[in-house]
Amino acid sequence: MLSRTAENLFWTARYIERAETNARLLEVGARNSLIPNTGGGYRNEWESVLQAGGTAGGFAEKYGDMVQRNVETWMFFDRDNPSSVASCIEQARENGRIVRTALTSQVWDALNSASQDIREFARTERSKLSVSDLVDWTLRTCALIRGASQSTQLRNDGYDFTNLGHCLERADSTARLLDVKYWVLLPQVAFVGSGLDNYQWRTILRSMSAHRAFNWAYGGEITPRKIVDFLVLNRASPRSLLTSVEGAADHLDRLARAYGRATPAQTAVRGMLGELAEATVDDVFDEGLHEFLTRMILDTSRLSGVIYETYLSGDAR
Amino acid sequence: MPDYFNEMFDGSNVRMPYRGLDDWSTEMPLELRNLKQSEAEALFRRIGITFAVYGEGGSPDRLIPFDMFPRVFGAEEWRRLEAGIKQRARALNAFLVDVYGRGEIVKAGRIPAKLVYCNEAYETAVVGFTPPKGVYSQIVGIDLVRTGPDEFFVLEDNCRTPSGVSYMLENREIMMRMFPHLFQALRVAPVENYPALLKRTFASLAPAKCEGEPRIAILTPGHFNSAYYEHSFLADMMGVELVEGKDLFVEGEYCWMRTTEGPKRVDVIYRRLDDDFIDPLCFRPDSMLGVPGLMNVYRSGGVNICSAPGAGVADDKAIYTYVPDMVRFYLGEEPMLNNVPTWQCAREDDCKYVLDNLPDLVVKEVHGSGGYGMLVGPKSSKEQIAAFADKIRADPDNYIAQPTLALSTVPTFVDEGVAPRHVDLRPYCLVGETVELVPGGLTRVALTEGSLVVNSSQGGGVKDTWVMAE
């Protein structure tokens, strides 16, 4: 297929996934801010969310003070924030419009309706829109778009590029959501293991719609080790790093088979997959959770770069 | 006020092709009509069939108003029209082969040499080259107006890349979805095989060096273009790639597209951009939309470009006057479709007549389109007419004038119920190995009472166009 079409499909998927990540981050922030402030003093739920999302700088420039309402606006509506839910949905729709011919009408319909809803929200009085409704809407909408794609798109190379977008962005997203914990607890090491600590871990799980699944898979108390195992190394967990990278590897394999040749992209994904498949929770904590996650985010973006050069840039020979 | 031909009513009698639509429209309660109208709009918006008007700003997501009352032709009416349209499309292509070749029609003195060879649209870069099977214009859009039961006039020819065919197809889809019982009761000929015919047309015009099944691509200026929806729609319906200039490159003697598997050769390009932008090495050097070197590949038979560069010289408004002569000269037949009488301001006598009779005439720029830069005499104030007269005197070569035609009317849904509104018609004639015409076209309607300007940029709408099967 046309490289440009593949690139647009890849990014449509990434934007959808990114919209979802932002909604989930918003939920983490909103829930964390509900905890009574018993520790006294420093509260930084919102900053942590912005740090993890990678948009803290842009926010500070535009709004300055960390006011909840401003953060909500920034993360959901603000077109100046390229990662806001509204920006992502519009970008996804624009990318989709460009490659309209590569999408089924169900997928296009879902993308187009999402963008119409976003415009409707922008016209609605803010007091009539609750954060939880907006988050719910985003999760539902992204699920609808993904579902339409899974159930109606032709299983050709375009499908692989779409899913590569989903997998890579999800790996990135899981790493970032998990990293919120690093930022939120950064100033007070004494908080580790406290009630507040547990509450925050639980919120992370909840934001990934995984708190029930976690209970089924592990049971008992929530500990950082179990959570890291669940969200990084567990194959059964739908959003874990391993699952996401494995998905990317599968789709790259399908591409190699369909095109009759392997490329540096397959080599790169295999490297990541090999490490994650063999890693233990101890390895992660020995390296330092934040350091490990930062490296994963970098590796993911490097893999994305290789995929771009190999398939999407149009320079392939 | 002239007497307008009403296509549905002959006095109080319903004309044959419209039988069945009278009851349908009068029996439809207002609520149902409003419901259907908003349903249609929602459908158009959902499929994303919108357009942007150049120079008007506003939302690129604007809808062209759709009127649900269809415009209908009887089988016999259509048969005559079809013969005339195909005849004209053949003559226009014969003319193009001739003027880029031996120029017999000029030598025979039937058309002034200056009009052809000094024409802005005459493309010296393709002189002496004949495209595959001698087809320059694969899609000929002929704009027609009707003034009586058997009186049709050609308003203009579009030999380059006439747009609007997606409306012909989508209007029908939506009508069938909303009023299935009408299609069960009446025998409306289908138009849905247009994309297949278009693909077959291109496939029959593979370039000299192409072996095997030709690979076809549509070249679009990009998703900011107002007709982008149509480009992607046609690519989808034909199952061909939709490419931008940057997706293509020239290497060796061929044109290639950049794919995820490496370069793939492209044999036939249906381009939806103007000659000027096709190849910066040959035409405008600042164009970012085209493909450097494409014209060389074209001239050496490595790729076919549809419509052929230079085809525009046949649909120029100054050349238009001579199309009936082309029919006689090349085909040896009498033209079945008439031109609208046209005065060329370039001619002194004509110009004098035009200036003396401006209040009764429609004056157009020779190279204008979209209803811009024209004067509709009967609808203009004295001041407007005087101002326009100055423009004509300043540059007479740039203007032609035609009488205001009594455009036929078709019943149209308006706030007060159903009322006659003026229409025109653009059928899309396909020229490849064979000449094909699907039974239908795009009917544009002037929604404002009394208005004769049907352009979508000037408040026009569209209707589904039906041809009754035998």
Structural overview:
- The complex is a heterodimer of chains A (317) and B (470).
- By secondary structure, chain A is mostly helical.
- Chain A contains 15 helices and no strands.
- Chain A has helices spanning 3-32, 45-53, 56-62, 68-77, 85-98, 105-123, 131-152, 157-185, 195-207, 211-217, 224-233, 241-259, 264-278, 281-287, 289-312.
- In chain A, helix 1 (3-32) packs antiparallel against helix 9 and helix 14 packs across helix 15 (289-312).
- Chain A is globular.
- Chain A starts with a helix and ends in a 5-residue tail after the last helix.
- The two termini of chain B are 36 Å apart.
- Chain B has a five-stranded mixed β-sheet with strand order 3-23-22-19-18.
- In chain B, helix 2 (30-47) crosses helix 6 and helix 3 (75-99) packs across helix 13.
- Chain B has three domains: 9-207 and 303-336 and 406-467, no CATH class; 208-302, Rossmann fold (3-Layer(aba) Sandwich); 341-403, 2-Layer Sandwich (Dna Ligase, domain 1).
- The chains are: A mainly alpha (317), B alpha+beta (470).
- Chain A binds chain B through residues 1-6, 94, 97-98, 100-101, 105, 108-109, 112-113, 116, 157, 161, 255, 259, 311-312, 314-317, and chain B through 45-48, 223, 228-229, 232-233, 235-236, 241-244, 246-247, 257-263.
